[in-house]
Please model this.
Amino acid sequence: MKSWFSIFTDELKLIIQDKSILLTCLVAPVLYAFFIGSIYKDKEVTQIPIAVVDMDHTSLSRKISDLVDTNEKVKVYGHYSSLENAMESFNNLEVQGILIIPKHFQKKTMNLDGSTIQLILNNTKFLTSNEVNKGVQQVVLTVAGGVRMKYFISNKIPIELAKQQAQPILPVIKSVYNATNNYGDFLLPILLILILQQTLIISFGQSAVHELQHGTLKHMQNASFFDFMKVFSAKSFYYVLLYIAYFFVFYKFIFPFYFLNFKGSLFLHLVLSTIFILIVLEYTIFLASFFKTTIGWTEILAFSTYPLFLVSGYSWPVDSMPKLIQYFANLMPSTPFYKVFNMLSVEGAEFDQIRSEFIHLLLLLLFGYLLLYIRYKFLHTKKVKT
Model:
């Protein structure tokens, strides 16, 4: 069995020789950070041009158009008498949406018969389409509430009771992890961390598969569990140092570059990030041991990003998922890490407030070690029999 340092130097040689590993762990993190980040760099979209097709030509339809135009996110680019003319501007990308107010809109609305307003959106830019949709809905709900209130007052209902009946349910929005209520501020921090996570998994997984198929551990029957861990600790040491450095650079420079929230102790962030890296490496070794080729590993893991993100509980609460998915999510390092990252970066939490998530990560670190031991015993027994 080679010495720890020899295995470490062999890993550096492998990285330099294998262009796939080299590009994935050295080039991809920074490249993707700026490529994906640039999509969300202008997180605040304002003055989004839309067209209004007013087929009613009444004071109420004009009121809606004026209110939409006063919204800071939306700008009425022009008024059209026909949908065909508006569609020409829409197809030429001069406007990002078309608001269509139908005939007899005011009459039906004032009689409380109900009338449908249509909204055509360019969904190729979901940030802009989302803002237009929210802005128009806000205006329509406000106008509808005012119309209902006037109707109730005209029927001799007291003003306070009319207010309650006009809007019996008032929404109360309290932003927790998205204080600016901005999609880019919410999504981009975790996307940057996801880039580091996935490039680490793919690049180190390729090295782990290569080791098990062609390296020292190819002859597993001659290696003890101590040898097994010595080989992979030496091979992973470079990745630990590299990705701790990546996390530091991301936290210190890339997050401020995109004007993202980053509160809390940098030291705590780096400690938790280091534990996260170690768990990811353990899980990677375990999963890579089931693959025969590095190409197969890359092909499968390249499509794991979105499912892992969805199950992590960042975009959907873990408690609302099916029980089986909840168990799986709580075994993933990204679930407690994303949560504790938000608590630190957005809320500026102290250690006492993240103690449970810290313990969760330590337990997953121990669980990963146990998985490796079980997997080693299986591989070792299989090699001895053959």
About this structure: The chain has a mean pLDDT of 86.
